[in-house]
Amino acid sequence: WKNRPIYLTFNSTRSFGLVGTEHQNLPVGQRVQLPGLSFTLDVADPTGLEEVLEAASLYFTINTTQALVNRFHQNLAVRVMNQTAKTLEISFKDNNGMLARDFVKAHAETFVDYDLQKRIQSDDNILRFIDAQIDTVYTNLSESERTLNNYKQENRINDLESVSGVYLDRLTEYEDEVIRLEVEERLLAEV
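^ that's the sequence the OP posted. Answer follows.
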């Protein structure tokens, strides 16, 4: 059935057959089940059917995926419009305007879905990294807090802020004494 025209013959507006097969008197408007093929044939304008059949033979083709790719890929053009803005131009040329529109629309939707999935994946990676950093910082903070508490217990320090004030006062005194001694040394050197 694939990649070849399947010609139709009409016995009436209610039944048809497939040329070159034993499949004749198939019902119009009802599901037809054949080995490897299932379809429904509808006639949009039964009164104009005879006129159409006099002018042309009617057929349909069931294409394989590769046949469709071979047919459509040469008419498809995709180019980057603006790298910074991440915009694409998708165009498709075909005699059937609705097919061209649907083809471009489907490709654009696929691209948007792909881009969205990539952004979601990127966001997930960032969130995993932030979660890992939070865990690391939390672990380091807990360890520092434990070490600080151990230090306070070993040195019997109750209020760390008052102790730091005492140390700062002592440091200021030592610096003042060092400056006084340096001045004295210079004076003695001059004498």
